Amino acid sequence: MNTLQANGIELAYDSFGDKANEAILLIAGLGTQMIRWTGPFCEELAARGYRVIRFDNRDAGCSTHFSQCPPPDFSTLAATLMAGQRPDVPYTLYDMAADAISLLDVLSIDRAHVVGRSMGGMVAQIMASEHPERVLSLTSIMSSTGNPELPHAAPDILAMMTRPGPNPFSDEPGFLAHSLAFARRISGSEYPFDGEVHRRLVLEEIQRAYDPGGTGRQIAAMAVTGDRRSRLAAITAPALIVHGTDDPLILPACGEDTAISIPHADLMLIDGMGHDLPPALYQTIAEAIDQTARRASTMEARP
Fold it and tell me: Which of 75, 90, 146, 217 could join 227 via S-S bond, C-beta 3.0 to 4.6 A?
């Protein structure tokens, strides 16, 4: 793992593959760390001839945490938004997109293929719409547009996501049970959920950093960023939208709306995939990302 100063904060990152190759930037989802982009998945992409970079978003992992800002009260946040007012939040998804652009700057990468999952997909979309000169291609996985008319997750899922879990340092078994229950709830029907693999991943994340307040601040950043469809319509980079038909957290309609909102985007619906990235799909999704990147190279080669 490496760290660097970008956009006024510290970002932790690492990379796979030859530094001379075109870059793929992987952006993690809500409250998760860069290691959710597992080593085998990164290697799958790197083997196709890319430099693959993953990093911890602000307020996650080993990057800067905004601990000086208290986590939001979700009921107050929702009431303020319903009243048509803008809540006072530490940052928005646009700031997180600026982090990623600054990371590329410091690494002397002019343009990259950008891949984001869940909240990271939203950040990737903003990068492609607001910084088109920096994004060669866009892959948005299990994400959405901010369209307020889209269906929401079931109440029990939202409750599990926002309800505080046990402190892992005083009640590790309770914390793991809480995390595993949520992960199982949002997994798909076609690909078996591996509880032991998830358990090891969660324990590794705890060892790197534990900050539930950071997750709350990221939720607030998503909430205030709002509907981005008008900006998505300006995206010119080749775009791939990947979504599972069994995703109960960000429903398939959200992926379909994303594909409709981005001109000429390809929509890849995967039967039985939930709100996760099972190892059985690594090769399939890596191949789709590669094909989208190659579309960008073809466009670049045209006179």
Answer: 146
Residue 241 phi, psi (nearest 5):
-115, 120
For the residues of 222-233, what is the DSSP string, one character each?
HHHH---HHHHT
CATH of the domain at 193: 3.40.50.1820
Please state the separation of Cα 179 from the chain's center in Å: 18
Task: Decide the pairing of beta strands 135-141 and 23-27.
Answer: unpaired
Helices (H), the chain: 39-46, 74-82, 93-106, 119-130, 155-162, 172-186, 195-208, 212-225, 229-232, 252-261, 282-301
Domain housing 133: 2-301
Instruction: Quote the pTM value.
Output: 0.95
Phi, psi angle pair for 41, to nearest 5°: -70, -45
If one counts the domains in the chain, the total is 1
* Average pLDDT per consecutive 10 residues, the chain (303 residues; last block may be shorter): 96 97 98 97 98 98 95 80 81 97 98 98 98 98 97 91 89 95 94 93 95 93 93 97 97 98 97 96 98 83 49
